[in-house]
Amino acid sequence: MKRNYIAGQWVEGVGIRRNINPSDLDDLIDEYAHADAAQTETAIAAARAAFPAWARGPLQARADSLEKIAAELLARKDELGELLAREEGKTLPEAVGEVARAGQIFRFFAGEVLRGGGEHLPSVRPGVTVDITREPLGVVGIITPWNFPVAIPAWKIAPALAWGNCVVFKPADLVPGSAWALAEIISRAGLPAGVFNLVMGPGSRVGQTLLGHPDVAGISFTGSADTGRRVLAAASERLAKVQLEMGGKNPLVVLDDADLATAVNCAVQGAYYSTGQRCTASSRFIVQKGILPRFVDAVVERLGQLQVDDARAAGTDIGPVVDEAQLQQDLAYLEIGRSEGARLAHGGRLLERRTRGHYLEPALFVDADPAMRIAREEIFGPLACVIAAEDFEHALALANDTEFGLSAGLCTSSLKHATQFKREAQAGMVMVNVPTAGVDYHVPFGGRKGSSYGPREQGRYAAEFYTTVKTAYTAA
Question: Distance from the CA of 215 to the CA of which of 58, 168, 338, 385 falls in 20 to 30 A?
């Protein structure tokens, strides 16, 4: 059994989680310890005790620790990718790529340790100077989802450590294996005891303790919109700093002048890969009427060519849905789409494979109305719908007609329309002729409206959350 990591020690839990492979329901990966509220409080206390020395410690040692983590992730990407694919259901190439990205993230922030800056300015008052610096928050609670169980923890933990914070990490209960493997690497990177802590377990115990504890200065959360709102309410009550990433209902606009092959690639890659279990997935195809029939036919043809199978099998394009609960949610939305009057042009069947798993054929609805639930609610599965648009202005209005605002895509050969879309799309990230899902690790990640709250993640913009600004005056 794999244990929690608290105050530099591997600690037994108060319960266990059995980790099952969604590609093979008879495959037990391992058992993982559950922490309770008391153990979470011990981890917070350890982080608080370690903070002063870590925040003021030598920068080179901090950078070296992050570089060591990066090097091991990159060296073991195939092995750890195998584990990720086995427990989450992401295809092996995607899983290996995710681990490599995590290594690149730690390497980037190892460099950021030594690139910290500030400003030295003259005051408007003679003989006075002003220094503007950034300081770490203190103890940061990190709560991550199951769909990117290595990359998302990496892009939260790495900047937190780089800028001198101490971490209490609560991974999603559904994917403890990848989180534990990352924590085990971090545990051997030379960090002082208490700087990093892993507490696995349900949100009702571990998460709630982090949210309500007065010694946790900031909470970085990625998950559902409903849970994110509860996180905000609980943390803001005691004025803790909060960063939320909460999902999307992302549009991909396809204009009549789009290159059809590019549009189909953007649609299929963005909507269906990773089994559609990405907050940046394109779940609404907003297609101008002139290209609509050809686009639908081409997407249906491409979907029919995709191989749905064991995540680790050679040639698999799409792995299983992550667990039974998510599968039932996907199936429920298929029934909702039918009942609302949309036409199922492809997919939606449960599939049988060599092993028992949560296999679902990718689904495409056409003749969808923007008021339908399948066009408004985040499904988080391999399901997309097509909405017809009259022209560019109509398509842009449909794209913005959502409570979410994470990612928005456009396929066109028009520079005019691309420029206008980048300016007027109400999303934090805009993609032109590339899939909505897939972002670089050195640039900001985040959205607007109901998708995000607080400062951006990733790149140098992550400093906005993990540090606080101090202005100091000195008289000569």
Answer: 58
Whether 245 is catalytic: yes
Model confidence at 116, pLDDT cuts 50, 70, 90, reads: confident
Choose, from 266, 279, 385, 411, the residue flagged as catalytic: 279
Burial of 49 (0-12, 13-18, 19+ CB in 10 A): middle
C-alpha angle with apex 444: 161 to 82, nearest 5 degrees? 65
- 266 a catalytic residue: no
C-alpha dist (Å) from residue 468 to 132, 244, 297, 452, 476:
10, 17, 52, 20, 26
Residues 6+ apart with CB under 8 A from 394: none
Name all domains of the chain by residue range, CATH numbers in brackets. Answer: 4-246+442-475 (3.40.605.10), 250-432 (3.40.309.10)
Asked if residues 218 and 243 have their Cβ atoms less than 8 Å apart, the reply is: yes
The upper half-sphere exposure of residue 175, i.e. CA atoms within 13 Å in the direction of its Cβ, equals: 29
Residue 259 has pLDDT above 90, yes or no: yes
Helix 59-75 × helix 92-113 angle, to 10°: 170
Residue 472 pairs with which residues in a beta bridge? 131
Element housing 79 (H / E): helix 77-88
Question: Quick one: average pLDDT of 92-112?
Answer: 98
The residue from 245, 266, 411, 457 that is catalytic is 245
pLDDT in tens, 335-347: 999 999 999 999 9
Q: Band of the pLDDT at 117, cuts 50, 70, 90?
A: confident
